[in-house]
Amino acid sequence: MNAVVVEDLTMRYRGHTALDGVDLTLAPDTIHGLLGRNGAGKTTLMRILTGQEFETSGRVEVFGQPPRENPAVLNRVCFIREAQKYPQNFKVREAFAAAAIACPGWDQAYADRLVQDFDLPLKRQIKKLSRGQLSAVGIIIGLAARAPLTLFDEPYLGLDAVARHVFYDRLLEDFSENPRTVILSTHLIDEVADLVEHVVLIDHGTVLMDADADGLRGRAVSVSGPAEAVAAYVEDAPVLHRSGLGGQLRVALAERPERPAEGVSVDSLSLQELIVLTTNQGDGK
Ligand SMILES: Nc1ncnc2c1ncn2[C@@H]1O[C@H](COP(=O)(O)OP(=O)(O)OP(=O)(O)O)[C@@H](O)[C@H]1O
């Protein structure tokens, strides 16, 4: 069974369409990267999947059932938001105690290890934590909850690079021992490029890309060299972006052409470059 099935999903706020006929199927036991510019509709989609928002129209199923007011689904879901709120007078340990009660799959021993990894002061009040420490609380809850569907919405505001990599490492390690469906929304595309197995790119409420990360890696290329040679080499290939200076041309292609390159350089595009160019193309830039 798929973890998530969304058909023709539309979400309209007064005067604004945040999601516009989205079709999406997310396989179980996979780390999905949910990418897109500010305001693209990522949080709205995650709020609908977790029953915090009700769609205007369309079909939404999580583990085969609609999430809307459905404890059978919602008990299997953990959603960690960018600006996750906790009762302000709680100490860190009390936030974890509350999560342990709310999350059926909670692993206290694992949470304790993560507290050490992130060097979190358990006895400190939540309101006294630094921004990064607050993010670490959310990340620890999201990991130790071991929810069958775990959603992280930009979970690392204020978290330094070392701590972010602790998060990626722990997520990958724990995922291999306890596979589950993870949806990670992020703007740090390069950092998660090797972590995510499937990429969904949303732009202006529609899905621009829905592809396996392995298939994307090394598929998109940049071709550069003398303008004439580049133009001949790229021929009818679908062009993502074109830029030139003097007699030189650089063309980004979604697919690496099969013919051998002659007189041009062909280099793989990073996932980040591919996402930026695909988004710009979708925006008509
Ligand atoms: N309650 C609301 N009322 C009106 N408009 C809303 C509401 N919630 C979201 N929107 C709008 O819907 C669009 C999608 O918002 P959403 O929060 O889903 O974007 P996002 O992709 O998560 O962006 P970011 O990366 O900045 O977090 C935005 O234009 C936003 O302003």
UniProtKB/TrEMBL annotation:
Pfam families: ABC_tran (PF00005). GO terms for molecular function: ATP binding; ATP hydrolysis activity. Keywords: ATP-binding, Nucleotide-binding. Residues 4-229 form the ABC transporter domain. It comes from the Bacteria. PANTHER family: ABC TRANSPORTER, ATP-BINDING PROTEIN, SKFA PEPTIDE EXPORT ATP-BINDING PROTEIN SKFE. This is ABC transporter related. It comes from Catenulispora acidiphila (strain DSM 44928 / JCM 14897 / NBRC 102108 / NRRL B-24433 / ID139908).
